[in-house]
Write a structure and sequence with these properties.
This protein is mainly beta and 525 residues long. It has 7 helices and 35 strands.
Length: 525
């Protein structure tokens, strides 16, 4: 199985804050063709290398190394033939085998020139799959469950890799019996590599990445005749089934964590693409129970063919909590309180009964019982920003909650909607009720409109701007610019709220009509 070489002796990587996604391309100086490699006994000489090997980088990276007799590629050509002198049929999924080990190798297999002095186009992929259909659409998959032998060992990456050659067109010789016009194929990686560098204490058995979009898939097909995308851009899959939004790497030999990130490295192969909202990175000492760290998804997404270094401090991982819908939330301890680190997304009370999803303007304005909506009635917004609830859905007061929501709790069992007093305690702990907003706000402008002054997320609360729905239901406003959170504390026809704006660093206490749609944060009992 093809190896991935981790080059060393090159200037080291500078690690920055925990969980910052740092991209590095998988490039390396080209290794010249091996002068001692075997020339194909057939009439078309074929060689191949990692396309990234032809460019140069000063950063440590990963590059493909072929394994003699083990590695096989599949080749297609509408003009080349399976028999001499233009006989037989066109070349469909011809099996070619690496003739030497190294980053560049000649390959042996059966393929002949067709017509003389004619353009021949060649398509190829790795790894070879026998019995592929008589077309250029070949099977592809990426396992969600990956296994690494021990910390720092990246040998398993080769088995997960999939590569497609840039199509090559050459002119056949005037004498088609001649061995000439070598077909040199350069292969491009379909996937992305993550290198987790993990520090902490205790034992590490497994690492998990969870996102909003596909990270792995059990089956699919890809047309290998498509033009090679620009560097980093993804290939187009003809089909994709069994998609998963998480990937897990399990260590056969568990690692003992140390205080240095570089001591424990875990490698994961994922589907390239953009993740929205927060990614969850899970660490497990036994492969069964998990603790999680939440990190804003990488701006611009994970690019094809790149390696990303992810620095993880396992000591900051916390126990997760799930709502009745199965959404998982990370938690953060701030002072004496434990808060969810994401806005609530549930569509059910914690007894399993549905919260009405009210989309109509008039119906929303007439409500006097619990309801929720998605911002702009578009469910995809809830992935990042959570859902919006009227106050009746969050009412947790003994004298009114039966009328509001049947006495039910919107938060997971063991949790409750934050009270006005708990918001005050939170703000006071962070330095005052009016100046704590920056310590709550997600830093950067990935989800907050620019400017986002004072945003440090020092607390780990990761406040996100879910916007609001107006009390009569007629419009939505503020997603990306304003964050509003209910407290469960009523005040007649109003209830206390906290809000943060994109253009200042304060958190402000106010009150709103009970029919507004606002975000919710839950606090542990």
């Amino acid at each position: 199985m093809k190896k991935i070489i981790n080059y060393s002796g090159i200037p080291g990587l500078v690690l920055i804050s925990a969980l910052f996604f740092l991209p590095f391309s998988c490039n390396k100086d080209r290794v010249q063709d091996n002068p001692n490699s075997v020339i194909s006994s057939q009439l078309i000489k074929v060689s191949g290398e990692d396309a990234n090997a032809a460019t140069k980088t000063t950063l440590s990276g990963l590059v493909t190394s072929w394994i003699v007799t083990t590695d096989k590629v599949g080749i297609y050509s509408p003009q080349a033939r399976t028999a001499t002198a233009g006989g037989g049929s066109t070349v469909v999924n011809a099996e070619f085998t690496a003739a030497s080990s190294g980053t560049s190798s000649n390959f042996t297999g059966t393929m002949y020139w067709g017509a003389a002095s004619t353009s021949h186009t060649f398509y190829a992929y790795y790894p070879y799959t026998a019995g592929s259909a008589a077309s250029s659409v070949v099977p592809v998959s990426l396992a969600t469950a990956q296994t690494q032998s021990a910390a720092g060992n990246n040998a398993h990456i080769g088995a997960l890799d999939f590569m497609i050659a840039t199509p090559v067109t050459v002119t056949s010789p005037a004498n088609t019996n001649a061995i000439a016009n070598e077909v040199h194929l350069k292969y491009n990686h379909l996937f992305t590599v993550l290198e987790f560098q993990i520090k902490g204490s205790g034992t590490l058995k497994a690492v998990k990445l969870s996102g909003s979009n596909t990270l792995a898939f059990s089956g699919g097909t890809i047309d290998i005749t498509q033009a090679t995308p620009a560097a980093g851009a993804a290939y187009t899959l003809a089909s994709q089934t069994g998609t998963a939004t998480q990937a897990v790497v399990t260590l056969t030999t568990p690692a003992t964590l140390t205080s240095t990130n570089a001591d424990t490295k875990v490698y994961m192969v994922i589907n390239p693409g953009t993740q929205t909202g927060n990614c969850l990175i899970g660490v497990s000492s036994d492969g069964t129970t998990w603790k999680y760290i939440s990190k804003t998804a990488l701006s611009g997404g994970f690019l094809r063919g790149n390696k990303y270094v992810v620095s993880v401090d396992a000591a900051t991982a916390t126990d997760p909590v799930d709502d009745i819908d199965g959404n998982t939330y990370t938690t953060v301890t701030i002072g004496t309180q434990v808060w969810m680190a994401q806005n609530l997304k549930t569509t059910k009370y914690n007894d399993g009964s549905n919260i009405p999803n009210v989309t109509g303007n008039t119906a929303w304005g007439a409500l006097s019982t619990g309801a929720y909506c998605d911002y702009d009635n578009t469910s995809s917004n809830s992935t990042t920003y959570g859902r919006l609830y009227n106050w009746y859905a969050v009412d947790n007061n003994a004298s009114t909650k039966v009328a509001s929501n049947g006495g039910k709790n919107i938060c997971p069992v063991g949790w409750h909607v934050s009270t006005d007093a708990e918001w005050t305690t939170l703000s006071t702990y962070l330095g005052g009720t009016s100046v704590a907003g920056g310590k709550l706000k997600e830093s950067g402008t990935a989800h907050w409109t620019t400017p986002n002054p004072g945003a440090t997320n020092e607390s780990g609360f990761t406040a996100l701007p879910g916007g609001y729905r107006y009390y009569d239901g007629t419009y939505f406003s503020g997603i990306g610019s304003y964050g509003y959170w209910w407290s469960s504390s009523p005040d007649g026809v109003f209830a206390d709220i906290r809000y943060i704006y994109y253009n200042n660093s304060n958190i402000t206490r106010s009150y709103n009509n009970l029919k507004f749609g606002h975000s919710v944060r839950c606090v542990k009992d």
